[in-house]
Amino acid sequence: MSETTVFNVGMTCDGCANATKRILGKMEGVSAVEADVPAKTVTVSSDGSTTKQAMLDALLKWSAASGKSVELAS
């Protein structure tokens, strides 16, 4: 069963989008990552073996380095 998780991310360019895709794409169980820069959302499809909190923690590490905002939307 596939789970979908959505994050609100303060992305301003494709570089930001690619960074989030790279970070989340390496996580266990993640099957797809879609970043929408204009909407400032990142949607993750996973099998549930990686928790939402683990994904959020990974993005928050990037957030601290990049200065971009990150929050769990759903």
Automatic annotation (TrEMBL):
Q: Name one GO molecular function term.
A: metal ion binding
Q: Which UniProt keywords apply?
A: Chaperone, Copper, Copper transport, Ion transport, Metal-binding, Transport
What GO cellular component entries does it have? Answer: cytosol
Query: Looking at the record's lineage, which domain of life comes first?
Result: Eukaryota
**SUPFAM superfamilies, per database record:** HMA, heavy metal-associated domain
Q: Which GO terms describe its biological process?
A: copper ion transport
Q: Which residues form the HMA domain?
A: 2-71
Q: Which family does it belong to?
A: Belongs to the ATX1 family.
| Xref: PANTHER family | COPPER TRANSPORT PROTEIN ATOX1
Q: What is this protein called?
A: Copper chaperone
